[in-house]
Specification:
This protein has seven helices and no strands. It has about 170 residues and is mainly alpha-helical. Helix 1 crosses helix 2 and helix 1 packs antiparallel against helix 3.
Length: about 170
């Protein structure tokens, strides 16, 4: 599996966590590519300083740990927090409004306080993936978004790209 990496325009607070998800998921491919590039030595090819530094940084245990941590935060906090924040204006039929986002913030505060007391919770998928469960239960579109987000999606490769359009 290769996680698609997108370019981000502008500034978003969750850009680092989103980028780390791609780094963590694609890590084996990045390291293999850099390793191969660094082993190629000939009179017309010399590994660049950027490739050397990137290999050292990506293979450090600190970088791997940081990418894992920020990936966990992206999936369990940033993504589920972003959805109701961006869709609040569409939830009137569920008796939900902008003021209800303060409840979401309180929930996040409580969860982070729990993690502060017991840091091992950050590695507990049941705890992390259910921080916002009450709101998924309260808002059916949020529950649907959550279900579709983690549905296995595949892109077929090797398919014919021939156009069957009318000429």
């Amino acid at each position: 599996m290769l996680l698609h990496v997108e370019r981000a325009a502008g500034s978003r607070q969750d850009l680092c966590t989103e980028g780390c998800l791609a780094i963590f998921m694609n890590y084996p491919f990045y390291v293999e590519f850099l390793d191969e590039m660094l082993r190629k030595t000939s009179s017309n090819h010399q590994a660049s300083i950027l490739q050397q530094n990137l290999f050292v940084v990506l293979t450090s245990s600190e970088m791997i740990a940081l990418a894992r941590l920020l990936s966990i935060l992206h999936i369990s906090i940033c993504m589920p927090f972003r959805y109701p924040a961006g869709k609040t204006h569409e939830f009137a039929e569920y008796n939900w409004g902008a003021a209800d986002m303060s409840r979401v913030i309180d929930t996040l505060h409580d969860a982070l306080s729990d993690i502060k007391e017991d840091p091992s919770l950050i590695l507990d998928p049941l705890f992390m993936m259910n921080i916002f469960k009450d709101y998924r239960d309260e808002l059916p579109p949020f529950k649907n978004y959550w279900r579709l987000t983690f549905k296995k999606k595949q892109m077929q490769s090797g398919q014919s790209t021939e156009c069957h359009c009318r000429k």
